[in-house]
């Protein structure tokens, strides 16, 4: 062992020094008297963990004298999933956090100043309801916009529907690659992998693309290691030396934002070496479809796409039985030249040689060639990307499309040990859809006028926003732009647990409960990892907080609409479980109660693998290698484009030569856990992570207070010498609330530009958070 | 009678700190103290690498009391507060501990922590299963004695998401830990000191 005694002592002392942080008031002071006098007996309750990470671990919680004293992993029917991570454990402290909003609050200073006075629930709800009524009468329901952050168990969509308001459940974050992949495979929101992670053990190659899996999907780590031990070669493509890179067989560091060039070169190699799966493509994809030379659209007869049938020597509808569609060749119809999608793609990728990609990505030609061979020829291969890396770039859709096409060419979709898409958070699996509460037909939400990311930037009808969670700071880049928009609004209502950055802008703040507290016995349902879980009450609401369900109901009552809503969350749970979806057969709230709030769905025991029937959620039901939707943008096929901002070709680069990213870490899930004091024992403040070579050029020493800035804004934090950062790029891990920075807010510098190509995509344009240039200097007095 | 021990697979450990917080919860560990720490074998700060881009190294070393068979802390304790129990756990009788900290000085692994002040707990009530300790005593990992004496695994083993930790009886040649030590060549930390830890690291 290479660690010296000095190392032990040093870290030990660092731990001891933290003792000084313990000067906060004891939390028991904040507890309501009733809690202290509550049932002295110990009880056990089962719930699951929703905040943002999507892991949905099921918990066994012990409550003593009305207080949460222990959180353990619940026992799952599939015991491999009896898991928890540091974030779940830290809830024990976070529930009782001094950052809790204890009463409803009313703004007294300027909006954004953060000055509030406590008010009663009645006053808060009456004020909100009256204002909403007034806005709806004067300007229509579309003047109200409701947004719930991820991790909110009960978004108030019913209320929004009854108000005729605009609402969205996603907004520009983590959807860049997914929008592109949707064009190819019909992948749903966030573009989850087709195969669940338990199937990785059957893969020969696992290509992680900008995916710090071992930090963002900690509770799937065992499946990563199992696959590795079973002999899969795991390769990480990541500019920086991440935690996951340390455990991979190979690391390919590329210039940030150039991943599409690398994937295009792999496609080039697949064609050059004929590594594609001809029969698979003929049967399952649009490869044999024909592109017209005149307008570049796909050739149709009537409303049917046509292919050239070798058997009959004629054009036939692509889905005609008994045909043998030609993959290759030139054809013509009515004097118009036609080329198969397959041939056109080969031509399109012809110039994307490894040598070409090597110049762009700064990865050597040989490494690219070897990578192509490994991925295409070693056997089943996984192409798994993460969130927060290549996703948060202006041109991310092209990468999602190129990735889908590469997987399709090599027959890695709908295959044991294959798959393509977002690997995080155990998203794929056997599933059943849950419908919302049925409302009378006269209630209709307003059609969203624009993606949420546009509201601060473009004229629109919105005059009031109701936000559940830290949306305004976490889901919108360019915080100064967001603040300017918020100042123009008539009403900002924030429903949240903690005093985070969104709360600062509120006119009215409504304190909600953590997911451990509730007025009811049961609160909600979730499906994850082929299991269904319900959320049981653990403790009473602390302070004056109410659940989102209760707040929606009471607000609806003030508007005279409460009669349309479920009386209890239990009613909603029971209604949802009546869904005829086969995985739910035999599962009721009663059976869930009897099974520690978790049951396996009616589903086969083998790992879930999507698209095994080779039917895709696309208009043709096939893998679509060519996109007519993106033709108006000249993007029938994906192509590499230089980053919109973070490129040396940008004149701005001379002034701001550093690419800035906000990466996920294990210590937070978006901005949740920013204030978790157990976790703050490990990482106590945000750090500007930069390669020492870049720091040296700027005269910076480890620990110096620095300013990160560009034309949009600035913030200050300490510099941390991070040799794992690729020179030329810096990062601050995602989700830190501004109170942890020496000054400013990390979103002050981020880029909110929207790619016009994003609008027709299924999930709208992505916010290019990482496509951002900055410069760093020593902060005054640092 | 058993020789309770643990193996920690450093190829699987990804420095996630889940064991650290699991231990904190289970053992009612106050703020500013940790019985189980995750050290970064790399750069100066937590989670930083050693070397120059792109030639880098980083791994993690979870470290708590190693429950040495030849424990220096047991030898130096002037009041017999620190002892090895029948199953090989090194434990502290808090009622006997006089806070002299000889054991802290003698431990080559620096895994003992001392209650300098009235322990501050956040949340402000006792949590987990272990009883609170008063000011002025030494404390450390007990191999979750209240769990392992009932046949359960220590909390750090139960919660490890990477399944890097295994727990069992090193006297039983068929136990998972014995097999792992044999087959993977389990390493004892600072073996040259002769303390014979019962926690083995697998590389």
From TrEMBL, chain A:
Give the source's domain of life in one word. Bacteria
InterPro entries, per this entry? Asp_de-COase-like_dom_sf, MoPterin_dinucl-bd_dom, Mopterin_OxRdtase, Mopterin_OxRdtase_4Fe-4S_dom, Prok_Mopterin_Oxidored, TAT_signal, TAT_signal_bac_arc
Q: What is a single Pfam family found in this protein's UniProt entry? A: Molydop_binding
Q: Where is the 4Fe-4S Mo/W bis-MGD-type domain?
A: 42-99
Q: Which family does it belong to?
A: Belongs to the prokaryotic molybdopterin-containing oxidoreductase family.
Q: Which Gene3D superfamilies match?
A: 2.40.40.20, 3.40.50.740, ADC-like domains, Dimethylsulfoxide Reductase, domain 2
PANTHER family under this entry? OXIDOREDUCTASE YYAE-RELATED, TRIMETHYLAMINE-N-OXIDE REDUCTASE
Q: Does the record bear Cytoplasm in its keywords?
A: no
* Entry protein name: Molybdopterin-dependent oxidoreductase
The alphabetical list of record keywords is:
Iron, Iron-sulfur, Metal-binding, Oxidoreductase, Signal
From TrEMBL, chain B:
Q: What is this protein called?
A: 4Fe-4S dicluster domain-containing protein
The protein's matches in InterPro entries, at most eight in alphabetical order, are given as:
4Fe4S_Fe-S-bd (IPR017896), 4Fe4S_Fe_S_CS (IPR017900), ET_IronSulfur_Cluster-Binding (IPR050954)
Gene3D superfamilies on file: 3.30.70.20
Where do the TM regions start and end? Answer: none
Q: Which UniProt keywords apply?
A: 4Fe-4S, Iron, Iron-sulfur, Metal-binding
The beginning of the lineage is: Bacteria, Bacillati, Bacillota, Negativicutes, Acetonemataceae
- Annotated 4Fe-4S ferredoxin-type domain ranges read 4-34, 56-87, 88-117
